[in-house]
Specification:
- The protein has helices spanning 14-27, 77-80, 117-123, 135-146, 151-161, 166-179, 213-216, 238-242, 268-272, and strands at residues 2-9, 31-38, 46-54, 69-72, 92-96, 111-115, 181-182, 224-228, 248-250, 256-258, 278-282.
- The radius of gyration is 20 Å and the shape is elongated.
- The protein has 284 residues and is α/β, with parallel strands linked by helices.
- Helix 2 links the parallel strand 4 and strand 5 (92-96).
- The two termini are 39 Å apart.
- Helices cover 27% and strands 20% of the residues.
- A 7-stranded mixed sheet has the order 2-3-1-4-5-6-7, with helices on one face. A two-stranded antiparallel ribbon has the order 8-11.
- It has 2 domains: 2-188, Pyruvate-ferredoxin oxidoreductase, PFOR, domain III (Pyruvate-ferredoxin Oxidoreductase, domain 3, 3-Layer(aba) Sandwich); 213-282, Alpha-Beta Plaits.
- Bound molecules: iron/sulfur cluster (SF4) (2 copies).
- One iron/sulfur cluster (SF4) is lined by residues 226, 243, 245, 247-248, 258, 263-269.
């Protein structure tokens, strides 16, 4: 059995990636299982999804704590989330990033691969610069880096199950397949099948308690920062009203100000601002 854990953000197609991989494995004649785990259901929030693939029926129903492969759809998560937790020597870390695979930090013995899935997604018109939908490009890279599914099966799964722009997604998967870079040439070989015994969870799974953005530090999720051009601001207060994290405060002069310690960079304020005076600027 091969166990694959996906880390992404809400809106990037992380859950769909795990489901598409399972569909492709099924088309290849394997027996798959996929399911997501949502910590906080918000656009931009970290999302984890799991896929198991085997030749025999899979009886495990737990989340994957000792993955053979970890796939990271948003490189910003490398700074804030222990994505490689449980990844054993011989496993593979695949990251969507323009950086070379050799530049990725990974536990000893873990192989590394990278793919610029954001560039590929945008080249095919999938998503926006703020929220590119990178899942199919990443899956193409995963197919090549591990051999866990064939590109043919992945293409058929994309054509059958992606609800929007299947042709563009199919081409993105092909470009991801061609564009993956391995730090270790051996990473291009199929990942050896291992049977991972789930470790006891440090925290019980289940409903997540409702806590404030200050407690879970949502500002660490931010990859884009809102910048208000006050010279065009009409003081309508829409940004203050619509911010889901109360990260906008109004000054005595009536102008809004972003409290970056609470802002997660979701871009809702920019989308709702009537005169479009809020610009979302990529963080360096
Ligand atoms: S200030 Fe804007 S970008 Fe930041 S959390 Fe609020 S709505 Fe999202
Ligand atoms: S929504 Fe735009 S125009 Fe309205 S207060 Fe906010 S920044 Fe100003």
């Amino acid at each position: 059995m091969i166990e694959i854990r996906f880390h992404g953000r809400g809106g990037q197609g992380t859950v769909v990636a795990s489901e598409l991989l399972a569909q492709a494995a099924f088309l290849d004649g394997k027996i798959p299982q996929s399911f997501p785990f949502f910590g906080v259901e918000r656009r931009g929030a970290p999302v984890t999804a799991f896929t198991r693939i085997d030749d025999r029926p899979i009886r495990l129903r737990t989340s994957i704590t000792r993955p053979d492969v970890v796939v990271v759809l948003d490189p910003g998560l490398l700074r804030t989330t222990p994505v490689t937790e449980g990844l054993a020597p011989g496993g593979l870390l695949l990251v969507n990033t323009p950086r070379r695979a050799e530049e990725l930090a990974a536990p000893p013995g873990v192989r590394r691969a990278s793919v610029d899935a954001t560039r590929i997604a945008l080249a095919h018109g999938l998503g926006t610069a703020m929220l590119p939908i990178v899942n199919t490009a990443v899956l193409g890279a995963l197919a090549r880096a591990t051999g866990v599914v064939t590109l043919e099966a992945l293409g058929r799964a994309v054509e059958q199950f992606v609800p929007a722009r299947p042709a563009e997604n199919h081409r993105a998967a092909r470009d991801g397949y061609l564009g993956v870079r391995n730090a270790d040439p051996a990473a291009a070989a199929p990942v050896p099948a291992t049977f991972a015994v789930p470790a006891p969870l440090a925290h019980p799974e289940g409903p997540v308690a409702s806590v404030s953005s200050e407690v879970i530090h949502t500002a660490a999720w931010r990859t884009f920062t809102p910048v208000i051009h006050l010279d065009r601001c009409t003081k309508c207060n829409f940004c203050w009203k619509f911010c889901p994290d109360a990260a906008v405060e109004l000054g005595a002069d009536g102008f809004p100000r972003i409290r970056l310690e609470y802002c997660k960079g979701c871009g809702i304020c920019a989308a709702e601002c009537p005169p479009k005076t809020i610009e979302m600027v990529a963080e360096a």
